[in-house]
Design a protein that fits this description.
This protein is an alpha+beta fold. The protein has one domain (2-191). It is built from 7 helices and 4 strands; from the N terminus they run ββααββααααα. The protein has a 4-stranded mixed beta sheet. Strand 3 and strand 4 form a beta hairpin. The radius of gyration is 17 Å and the shape is globular. The two termini are 19 Å apart. The relative contact order is 0.12.
């Protein structure tokens, strides 16, 4: 399904609706749906700031089962505007998490974790976008990409090892391991050219 709103095209993949149906049917606890809502609100944070930042209005929003991508002007320099765009998603999660403490500690925790996770220095996350812009201030673009890739791999390796430790200790909690492997797969696709760069000119999976 495709919708055109002024200069922005919104594409919603059929399988996204299929995913909603599957979640609604199997998710008796409501946590998966809450996670999906938190991810949507995360992207809404980015979108709101992009609309308010001159020259950063989105040209396309793509919604798929694997996430939401927001396409706009590349964030080539470290400015107040680019920093605001990259941190807006996590900021929205932190605000929602703080408000949710009153009525839903689980929803609050979910938003806090999502906000913090997206600030990790991994290429396919918002934190990676921030690191990229910082590195470009002190070295060439090519060197910045190499350093960011190395930092991303180091971070994800640490996450995976921690995930294995948690799984061995609990016997059932594999969420951190699964997340680290998913991010590693996203990074590999990015490096092999099967995914768009992540700096809100081609954004991520939420």
């Amino acid at each position: 399904m495709s919708i055109q709103i002024k200069h922005c095209r919104i594409r919603i993949n059929f399988y996204f609706f299929a995913l909603l149906c599957v979640i609604s049917f199997f998710d008796r606890s409501g946590m998966l749906l809450a996670g999906l809502l938190s991810a949507l609100l995360h992207e809404c944070g980015h979108l709101t700031v992009m609309l308010l930042t001159p020259g950063q209005a989105p040209s396309e929003i793509s919604v798929t089962p694997f996430g939401i991508r927001i396409y706009g002007a590349p964030l080539a320099e470290f400015t107040d505007g680019s920093l605001a765009v990259l941190t807006a998603g996590s900021g929205a999660n932190f605000l929602i998490g703080g408000a949710a403490l009153v009525f839903s500690p689980h929803l609050a925790a979910l938003n806090f974790v999502m906000g913090a996770m997206n600030l990790l220095p991994v290429d396919t996350l918002d934190g990676g976008g921030i690191v990229r812009l910082l590195l470009r201030r002190v070295c060439t673009e090519r060197t910045a990409e190499y350093l960011l890739t190395a930092l991303s791999l180091l971070t994800l390796t640490g996450m995976a090892l921690a995930g294995v430790g948690i799984l061995c200790r609990t016997g059932y909690n594999f969420s951190l391991l699964a997340m680290s492997l998913w991010l590693l797969l996203s990074l590999m696709l990015r490096l092999t050219g099967h995914s768009q760069p992540h700096n809100k000119n081609g954004s991520r999976k939420a």
